[in-house]
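Query structure, 154 tokens:
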């Protein structure tokens, strides 16, 4: 039975723990990277984590994958540079942040995360069809990426 996992977790620690557990169990995983502060739903790409660029969350996950011995992880990431949040000069109470807190909170709109979710669904369906030997059209790049979704056993 083929039971893929689609990871849409926002925290790095939980995202990596899920990837490790899926790898140990031999379960394929597709991990969604950041969609916050983005406006272009067409900028998403599917790749192995080690082939990503321009995504701050993917950069952190990639470094942690190296440290944890995760040698491949199929991800969806955006090539778009995140927008800087607007500073509200009239919002004086938010200027002083407690020590150790984030300076800004990532924001999302309705359509960019939705586009990433649609792409995750499409990739998962293709992986299911591929596993069943029923995928009729596929490029060499898609075949290579499909092998990146399969966990390696150690």
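Result returned for the query:
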């Amino acid at each position: 039975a083929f039971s893929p996992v689609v990871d849409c977790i926002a925290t790095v620690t939980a995202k990596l723990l899920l990837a490790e557990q899926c790898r140990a169990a031999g379960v394929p995983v597709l991990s969604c990277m950041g969609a916050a502060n983005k406006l272009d739903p067409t900028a998403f790409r599917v790749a192995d984590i080690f082939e990503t660029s321009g995504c701050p969350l993917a950069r952190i996950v990639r470094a942690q994958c190296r440290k944890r011995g995760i040698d491949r992880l199929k991800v969806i990431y955006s090539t778009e540079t995140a927008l800087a949040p607007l500073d509200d000069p009239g919002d004086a109470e938010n200027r002083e942040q407690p020590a150790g807190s984030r300076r800004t909170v990532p924001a999302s709109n309705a359509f960019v995360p939705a586009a990433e979710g649609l792409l995750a669904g499409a990739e998962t369906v293709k992986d299911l069809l591929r596993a069943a030997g029923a995928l009729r059209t596929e490029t060499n790049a898609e075949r290579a990426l499909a092998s990146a979704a399969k966990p390696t056993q150690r």
